[in-house]
Structures are given as C-alpha cells and as structure tokens.
Specification:
By secondary structure, this protein is mostly beta strands. It is built from 4 helices and 21 strands. It is globular. This is OmpA-like domain-containing protein. InterPro entries: Bact_OuterMem_StrucFunc (IPR050330), FA58C (IPR000421), Galactose-bd-like_sf (IPR008979), OMP_bac (IPR006664), OmpA-like (IPR006665), OmpA-like_sf (IPR036737).
C-alpha cells in the first residue's frame, strides 16, 4: 500500500468528475420481511478461523453486493466500494479529521443467513500512521429495507493491523448490512479498513431488475446501456467509448473500447435493486485502474454517443482483429452451453453471415482455479461447444477453429473474484 501522503491530489492525473456514491442515505423502493437480530457484547472472543475455499463472500462486488451510501471517505482511491473488491491492495479511509462514527450501508444480492464476518486491517498503514486501523465495529442488519428495520447483530473489536474473523452467535438473516465504525486504534486524523467479508447461506434467486437499459451519469461522462436478453451494449461520451458484454444475476461484465485509441479493457458493474445506482471497477492490461460508478441521468440528459448497430463484436474484429465475448455462458466445470448464451451466439452467427469471407478462431479462456492442464482442456472443450453451435446453424466448419488457452492469457488479475470472473471468457480472433 502507498502511504497516506499519496492520497493528496495528483496534479498529473486528469480530473474526472465523480457522480458516484452519495454520502446521504438513499431510499430505494424495497419490501421484505423484518428481523430481530442478536446483540453481542463488546470485546467478544475473536474467531480466527478462515472460511473454506468453497465459501462465497457475499460482501463482494462479483457476488452482487453494492454500497448504497456512506458517511464519508477520503476520495475515490480510498472509497467505501473498495471494501468489496476482494483484495487488501485497496481499501477505505475516512476523510482527514472526520469524526466517529463512520457508517457504510451495503445491499446484498439476495437474502442471506449470515454465519461469519471478517474485518481486514492487515495492510492498513500502521507503520507510518500508528493506530489507523478500525477498532470498535458494529454490524446492523435488516431484511426490511435499506432505511428501516435494522437491528444490531454484532459488536466486536477488530484487530490492529491484522485480519479478524467473527462468527455470528446464530445464523442471522440479512439483505442489507450497515457497518458502523465507532473508533480506531488511536490515530488522530485517519481511520482505515482494507476489506470487509461475510459468509453464509443465500436463499432464493437474486431479484432480477427489469433491465439495466438506460442513460447513466457516471464518472466517465454520460453512458447509454441497452440490454437485449442477457447481452448488454453501450456507449459513453468519454473518449468515444463503447462497450459490449453480458449481465447475469444483476452483475454486468463487459469489454470497453475508446474510439481511435489503442485503449481496450474490461469492467464489472452491479446495479442496485432500486435501479438508482451502479457500482463498478474497471481494468486495463489486466490491472485494476479505478471505480466506475453512476446513477440514472436526470432531466432527460442524453449522451452524444451512439451504440453501434452491430454491437461491439463486428467493430472490434474490424479495428483490432479480436473481440472479448462475455455473454457466452457455460455450466460450472463443464463445456455445456447455458440457454442464456443464445443472444450472444446469435450475434456471432450474424456477424459471420454478414461477412462470408470472415474466418474466426474461437478461443476459450479460464481463470487459474484448478490445474493448468485441466483448464487448458476445459477451455478447448468450451471453444469447441461454440464451434458446434455455429456449425449446427449453418456456418461452415472450415471457417472456424476452436482453441483453448486455459489460464495462460488473463485480461485481469486472478487474485480477486472480480478479476477471475473477467478472465473466464470466450474471445473471437479474425484469421
């Protein structure tokens, strides 16, 4: 981690207006079932056990969690959203001199019976700023709504400069979680927390928003998104950007490109249940670059950009010779195509039909979970499934080649769940 000295504005960085998470509490239109949670005494015994690899962190952007509001943060580089990024390389810091308590409101993807929660101060800047780690913390939960029905579920003391895992006294139902930081370990000006995790059993399906389609005012100018089935297409005014990808359980993954520039990357975004907020992270050359957040544009504002009529696939193949495709989905550890892949596959077929001389390599890519040999075989089988789907629908097999690269060509980090999700993909390469 860089020291807090690096939090000062960098005059060499271009200014990008930030219209993301507000410090005020929002009131989405949400109705659920009320809950009474158990209150635990302060300084309870820390459970230092680590969740198993099979457990899914529900307080994670790739799991559909989203920060609805917070009482303050230092800046975008130390944003509350970075508590949900599955890495301690980035984290949250209160503004200089901000008074306690600090509050952060998080919406979970679906109702969850919480079993444990972790507060990670392991990379807090204790060496340069002794006592900066968050200390006394409270967790409040609700199944009623983001601004009602909260009960105190747990009160604990997070370890200084280390990761603490605590078990809830009993399985605790939650859909909204409010973190309240009451104190730090003594630093007078700053408080940090690097990561927040929670584990438990989810119930039911995620509440699918009717659509992510719309115009959003983001920190990268106005953005227009169209959703067709599970496929999304879009554009944004910053540097003539375009995007294409897919949305699954309200988590959108896409490739972005800037017009006339050699700038291509990936991003992951979550839409709040109310549809009022987008929380996202973006990557370039496989590395995290920053937040991408927004809310519906007001007053009928419209971006100047237009969405390519053929999506980004044909455009990407024309300009760079390859296209990342996130809308092609497979069953877990399988080459079986999911039904929700149909929209994207039809678009690939349409591009091939429109360009009879086009020949494509269909590349399968995985994250680094599992052995290298297993991932190579799985990725080749998945690419072959795409080839088979296309040939069964009239595309000449001589125009297609299946290739499997496994984990060898990541487009993002494999150290976070968001990065691993972006690495699991199909790519099309012009031959």
């Amino acid at each position: 981690m860089s020291s807090l000295d690096h939090k000062r504005p960098n005059p060499n960085m271009p200014y990008l207006p930030y219209h993301g998470i507000s410090g005020s509490w929002l009131t989405p239109f949400l109705v659920c079932v009320c809950l009474i949670a158990t209150i635990e005494p302060l300084h309870a015994q820390t459970n230092q056990s680590t969740p198993s690899a099979q457990d899914v962190d529900v307080l994670n952007l790739s799991s559909g969690a989203i920060v609805l509001s917070h009482s303050g943060q230092y800046d975008e580089e130390w944003a509350a959203l970075l508590l949900l990024d599955d890495t301690v390389e980035h984290g949250w810091s209160a503004a200089e001199g901000a008074s306690f308590p600090h509050e952060i409101l998080i919406e979970l993807q679906q109702p969850t019976a919480l079993d444990s929660i972790a507060f990670d101060n392991s990379t807090a800047e204790e060496a340069d700023y002794p006592g900066i780690s968050a200390r006394h913390v409270e967790v409040w939960v609700s199944t009623d709504g983001p601004d009602t029905g909260f009960s105190k579920a747990i009160v604990r003391e997070a370890a200084q400069g280390a990761r603490s895992v605590f078990s809830f006294p009993e399985s605790t139902p939650a859909r909204w979680l409010k973190l309240v930081i009451k104190s730090n370990w003594g630093h007078e000006s700053y408080t940090e927390l690097m990561e927040l995790e929670a584990y438990g059993e989810t119930s039911g399906n995620a509440d699918s928003r009717s659509t992510i389609s719309g115009v959003y005012d983001t920190n990268y100018d106005l953005m227009r998104i169209e959703q067709r089935g599970t496929q999304i297409y879009g554009c944004y005014d910053y540097r003539g950007g375009t995007l294409t990808g897919s949305i699954d359980d309200n988590v959108a993954q896409f490739e972005w490109r800037h017009k006339g520039r050699d700038e291509i990357g990936t991003a992951i975004m979550v839409l709040s249940r109310s549809g009022n907020q987008l929380n996202g992270l973006w990557y370039e050359d496989g590395q995290y670059q920053g937040l991408w957040t927004g809310s519906p544009a007001e007053g009928g504002e419209q971006p100047a950009c237009t969405i390519p009529t053929d999506g980004n696939i044909a455009q990407s193949l024309s300009t760079s010779g390859r296209a990342i495709v996130y809308g092609i989905r497979f069953d877990v550890d399988s080459a079986q195509l999911r039904a929700k892949s149909e929209e994207t596959l039809r678009q690939v077929r349409s591009v091939l039909n429109d360009q009879p001389d086009l020949r494509l390599a269909i590349e399968g890519h995985t994250d680094n979970t599992g052995s290298t040999s297993y991932n190579a075989e799985l990725s080749k089988d998945r690419a072959q499934s795409v080839v088979q789907w296309l040939t069964e629908r009239g595309i000449d097999a001589d125009r297609l080649e299946a290739r499997g690269y496994g984990e060898k060509q990541p487009v993002s980090t494999n150290s976070t769940s968001q990065g691993r999700a972006l690495n699991r993909r199909v790519e099309l390469v012009r031959q």
